[in-house]
Every structure is written in C-alpha cells, then in structure tokens.
C-alpha cells in the first residue's frame, strides 16, 4: 500500500509497505480519508525528532486523522465496512499507575499513532491504511466531514489545557501564538467565558484569521502600540495565559500582562534552553501548568462537533492530495500564510 515515511530531516519518501491484514479480534483496518498536519509533525520534519522522541527507523507521520472502516471486527458490530469514523490516536496501557489515576496522557507505555514516542513506531495517517483497535474509532454523524473529524485531536489537546486552566467563567484569556492550537484555544475558550479573549502573533495572516473567527482582539507584539492596546483590554492583567507559540522568550516577555495570582498553561513545545520568568512568577504568585496531549477530552470534542458548537473547518487554509504529502510537508514547514493544512485521500 502507498505510504510516505519520514527518513530524517526534511526527508519524506514514498514507500510501498505491506497492507496491515494481520488484525486481532478487537482491531479494524481503516482507509485514511483526511489527515491534518500538526505542529509536532513539522518538528519531526524540520528537526528529525521532537524533544526526546527520536525515530529509530522510518515511519509514517499523521495523528490527526479520519477515514472509513475497510476491515471489520466481529466484536464491534456497529463498525461495519464503509462506516465513516474519526480516529483517536491515543492508546494508553490502562494498567499503569498514571492510567489508573486518570492521567492516561502520562502513560509511559503510551502508543500514539504517528509518533516515535515508543518503539516499534506506529504508522500514522501518511499511510493509505492503518490497523487500530476498534475502540479508537468513533462513528461520525452525516454532517461531520472527514476533514472536520481529523481535527478532533488538536481540539482535544486544547480542551485538556482548558480543563487544567480551571473554570473560565468570568475570566479573561490571553493566548500567545495564533497557529492551529492558538486558534482553537480562542474558539474553545469563547464557549466558556464572555470576558476578553486576546490572541497575539507576529504573523499578519494568522491575526487576520483570528479576527475573522471572532477573537476580541488580535495583536502583533512588533507593533509600537502593542503594550498599550493589550493592557487596555485587561487593565489588571489577564486571568489566564494559554501559551501556544513555544517561542523561546515568550513567557519572559508576556508575564507582565498576567494578573497577580493568575495562571499560565503551557501548550507550545519549548526547547530546554527557553527562558522562564522565575522571579515574576514568584512575586506575583502565578501558577505555571504544563499541558501534554489529552486524557478523556476526545469524547467532549466529539460532543461539541455533534452539537455544532464549534466549526473546526474555519482554521483550514490549504489542502493537498495524498500523493503530494512531501509538498504538503514542505509547505507546512515554510509557509507563514497557513494555519492548518489538510491532506485528502
């Protein structure tokens, strides 16, 4: 079957790999129809790794995915061949101390589709077909498109961060970084607060997109009146900072806009040498909370789509056919115009 494997930095190659027909009783095979290119995919592409997840052999990226049941499981009669499904890429062990504590995202044995976090690596949506436990497949309502379903994963990541942020009612929110996660942060946060939600980025197209979607304000830190404009929207400081950029100095430059006693939730992936404002956090009693992947929020994400409370297609800026995955990855890596690129099969 057709597959595009990551061999190293900026090296994605077409490969013909075996069809995964050796399924267990609880597994199905899904023909992939839509894949979103994630920021972590771009990290793998640019750096050949992400953090300490270092590939030991070529594998297929793509963990934001949806498709059609190709091979059924007798244990899951509702998942007939041809059923349209979203795919939850998270496969925790369910038996470790973290899983039992309800923190499946911290499972040391986590098998995550399209990730090098474990070995053997699990091929993702850059393969034509994937084998997956049937319980990871969620049947789609007719009005939910494949591309919308593929974005359930990043929405789940955002919903997890919002859960860690706590009750947002009556609280103002500052979001740094207007990429996929940042855009979804303001779309999701707006469901839970009517106070100002402000997003910042140095990319004009990203700010324009956020404005069209409906953020309170979209501001560029490079503009001369940035600090005055931002402070005017929350004179006492913002209650919550959702940091979605991963920029090296972003926390140091932004901490002065956070209300005393406020909370920082870190979604963007930093390098180990990133700056951290220890003194400012200490004297203002700020809470810093990192956020990694998601726990049970995938079901909430599905519910929001089924209730039509959020339109994920608003962040899609470009689409590529499956056979142009190398071009799609290069575009996602180089473009300052795009927010979310979708690969269609």
Automatic annotation (TrEMBL):
Entry keyword set: Metal-binding, Oxidoreductase, Zinc
Cofactor(s) required for function per UniProt: Zn(2+)
Membrane-spanning segments: none
Pfam families (UniProt xref): ADH_N, ADH_zinc_N
Ranges where the Enoyl reductase (ER) domain occurs: 8-343
Family named by the database record: Belongs to the zinc-containing alcohol dehydrogenase family.
Descriptive protein name: L-idonate 5-dehydrogenase
């Amino acid at each position: 079957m057709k597959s595009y494997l990551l061999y190293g930095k900026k090296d994605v190659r077409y490969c013909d790999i075996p069809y995964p027909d050796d399924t267990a009783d609880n597994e199905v095979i899904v023909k992939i129809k839509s894949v979103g290119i994630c920021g972590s995919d771009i990290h793998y592409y640019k750096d050949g790794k992400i953090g300490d997840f270092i590939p030991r052999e070529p594998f297929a990226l793509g963990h934001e995915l949806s498709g059609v049941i190709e091979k059924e499981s007798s244990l899951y009669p509702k998942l007939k061949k041809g059923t349209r499904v979203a795919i939850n890429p998270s496969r925790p062990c369910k038996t470790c101390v973290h899983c039992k504590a309800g923190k499946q995202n911290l499972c040391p044995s986590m098998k995550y589709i399209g990730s090098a976090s474990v070995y053997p690596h699990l091929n993702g949506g850059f393969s034509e077909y994937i084998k997956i436990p049937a319980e990871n497949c969620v049947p789609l309502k007719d009005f939910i498109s494949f591309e919308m379903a593929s974005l359930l994963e990043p929405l789940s990541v955002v919903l997890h961060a919002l859960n860690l942020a706590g009750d947002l009612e009556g609280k103002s929110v500052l979001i740094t970084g207007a990429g996929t996660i940042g855009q979804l942060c303001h779309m999701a946060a707006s469901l839970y607060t009517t106070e100002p939600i402000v997003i910042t980025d140095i990319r004009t197209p990203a700010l324009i997109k956020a404005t069209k979607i409906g953020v309170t304000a979209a501001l560029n830190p490079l503009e001369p009146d940035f600090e005055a404009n931002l402070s005017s929207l929350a004179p006492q400081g913002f209650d919550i900072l959702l940091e979605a950029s991963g920029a090296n100095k972003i926390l140091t430059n932004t901490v002065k806009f956070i209300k005393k006693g406020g909370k920082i939730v870190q979604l963007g992936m930093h390098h180990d040498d990133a700056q951290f404002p220890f003194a400012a956090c200490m004297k203002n009693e700020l809470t810093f909370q990192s956020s990694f992947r998601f726990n049970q929020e995938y079901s909430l994400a599905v519910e929001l789509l089924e209730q039509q409370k959020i339109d994920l297609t608003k962040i899609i800026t470009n689409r590529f056919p499956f056979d142009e995955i190398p071009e799609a990855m290069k575009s996602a890596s180089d473009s300052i115009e795009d927010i979310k690129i979708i690969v269609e099969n």
